[in-house]
Amino acid sequence: MLEMKNRDVDTWLELSENMWLDASSHLIVIQLDRIAMTLEIEEFLEFYDRINDAKNTMFDHPGYVIGSTVVDGIEKNILIPRPDEDDYV
User: Fold this and answer.
1) Domain encompassing residue 70
2) Residues 6+ apart with CB under 8 A from 28
3) Is 1 contained in some domain?
4) Number of folded domains in the chain?
5) Residue range 28-39, pLDDT digits in tens
């Protein structure tokens, strides 16, 4: 987990799993596996819009299908490559 050193704990707000807002510096920190990214608050919505656009494009892409899986008892959507028709013969 990302360590938030030298910061006042009261200024950190957990926005979601692996995403925090530092209210004192107006920064959003996103951690994905071993990668952490810091965005200024003004950049966050643009980043979100780009990620959301990419997600929607992938959902509409004919080479991929939406599936589901259960992680820690919670059902989640996943995106997987569309299997070849030959895989089912």
Assistant:
1) 9-88
2) 15, 19, 20, 21, 22, 38, 39, 40, 41, 44
3) no
4) 1
5) 999 998 999 999
